[in-house]
TrEMBL record:
Pathway: Glycan metabolism; L-arabinan degradation. Residues 1-26 form the signal peptide. Transmembrane segments: none annotated. InterPro entries: ConA-like_dom_sf, GH43_arabinanases, Glyco_hydro_43, Glyco_hydro_beta-prop_sf. Coiled coil: none annotated. Keywords: Glycosidase, Hydrolase, Signal. It comes from Micromonospora aurantiaca. This is Family 43 glycosylhydrolase. Belongs to the glycosyl hydrolase 43 family.
Amino acid sequence: MGHLRRGGALAAVLTLLLAGAAPASAAGPDRYRNPVSARFADTFADPVVVRGDDGLWYAFGTSDPLREGEGRTHRVPIARSADLVDWTYAGDAFAPDQRPAYAAPGAAFWAPDVRRVAGRWVMYVTVTDTGVSDDTFDTAVGVATAPSPAGPWTFADTPVVAPRPGAGGGYLWTIDPSQLTGADGRHWLYCGSYYGGISVTELSPDGLRAVGTPTPVAIDNKFEGAYVLRRDGWYYLFASTANCCAGPATGYSVQVGRSRDPRGPFTDRDGQRLDVSRAGGTPVLTQNGNRWIGTGHNAVLTDLSGQDWIAYHAIDRADPYLDEPFGVNERPMLLDRLDWIGGWPAVNAGAGPSDTARPAPVTTGPVDARFATADLRGWRAGHGRWQATGGVLTGSGTLTSRTRIGGDLRVETDLRLTGAATAGLRLGGVDVRVGRGRLSAGAATTALPPGLDLGDRHNLAIEVRGRQLVVTLSPSRLGDPVAQVSLRLPRPGAGELSVRAEGGPAEFDNVSAVRLYRPARHTVPDLRVGPVLRGYSDEFTGGLDPAWRWVRQDPAATVYGGALRWPVQDADLSGTGNTAGVLLRDAPAGNYVAETKVTLDLGEDSVRNYQQAGLVAYVDDDRFARLTQVAIWNTRQVEYGYELPFAGQPVYGGSIVGTPGSTTWLRLAHRVDPVNGEHEFRAGSSRDGKHWTWGAVWTFPADTTPRIGLVAHGGATPAVTAEFDYLRFHR
């Protein structure tokens, strides 16, 4: 999502929804440090990264100034890199006076998504203001085309998805587009945000028009920033949740669900759907207590070794705004390893965003042929005629690399059949071919989608691990395979690499062979919880323990029947109101886990803003972290809200952790950072008290003494009582 303008109805809606290090990205040979955009930009939000025809990598971001003090908005800035680490500014996609005819003069362009569709580069982009009404946020998804990622980009005359009036007034947030080519070759577009939710619509074969009926895939008032890829027969919907742009209180994070169909339904690891009131979402990326907060709006890319990476933006909590407080949120581009463990993605095996030097992506190898010159001395012709001109290799017959390769490998090329009946690669005696409606590897074969035009450039990739060979054909190499075939080898792969074309010529480009990545096998260990600290805990079996202290005592809160029963107050704790009661007790020194079990019948689907109950880590009314199950419009969520004083006023934001039940178990895990003494509180939630979902970390300064307590507030209509079974501390 782009930065939302402050003031007016739009800011009001967001408020209601969810009321350093060295700048250089390089960190030595084969290592890097976030943010990778530091060399050319202070902010580069909503990034997407593609590999161009020239073998270079291109990143696209939301329209913003790039540098502090610049004062000029770049209209979809483009950056270019040879190694995914060192980036340079490559210009803007659109000139200052360039806009589609339906866009209002003041329209901004947010959250681009760039793909190869039908043989050309296509950009889908949010157009924030159109001419259909006087509303300044009657958003649409526009589309532009270009011969290369660097441009020139030309808008189509009509939007892909036009502004959509909302039942609650105004226009649904038709933003954050993301395209996917499915397994059958059909094109899909995902878009949407909090007001209206995320939907998917089928596109025309050229990718420029919506031709299907939209299908909701993720509920409104929770998700935005969709990104979908296909892996092992599953479609994975990545979506960002919570507020993108709350400065130092931003808790944006990425969650995922998966489905066998691009239209859903998408479910998380626990089987919870993403399109229902108590929506699920398996955590992929969330802040971990280091420099970075608000880690969200992601894209996924694959390096030459086959390792996936997640590109996203985040906020440096020490420098949250581009120029002045409460202006443009400063959101540079970060890059981290994306691991797949047990069928689910996790950043750095679950460790989260990095702020130290890390191994860099693999972007070159023993074979790395871009064919920028006519020199083919690294190759030998078996038969046929071959030449390198215009940055591509063209020919028929067989051309073999003089570099011998072996072991676990990833080999790939960009391929276009210009007259050949079949073309492909030969690796260690195994022929891999596309043509005549099929993708084949030795004797293994599978049909290509009907109508697939091999005269358009496609990426052909081979991965060999041990004796298993897997071949993938995709249009954009962005998790969009249109065909895949596997073969069991008689022996581990080794030998020569050749390009081959039969029955006529074919074009090859970006031929590479590198050592295959080594996958992570295990996620970082879950938090271990020790025995109960009885002296600090209360089971609510004999009245209220005298160790409790009130901030604004509520006489309606009573202990009986083995529970603290607290009618939800018509009061709040965020902002400047500070009318809600807080029931507190001192926490033990050092590291600990605080846990409660709270039952709160919020129903489903109806609007009960913002009734909630749960745990709080509290310093004072303007510095706290609140973990509650809460009604947010039609949804029921576990929100981990955070307030702190900044620039003379309290700032509130939050993150989302797990899925609530009517009864929800909540945990705050406290850790003292041994380097700076900060108090770190990591949030966890559970629907059964056994299986936990862990989420974001909020921090408190070292010179504070947070207490732990309970809250029940947000609205008294309809009347509902929160029941707390206990508050326990564990070492």
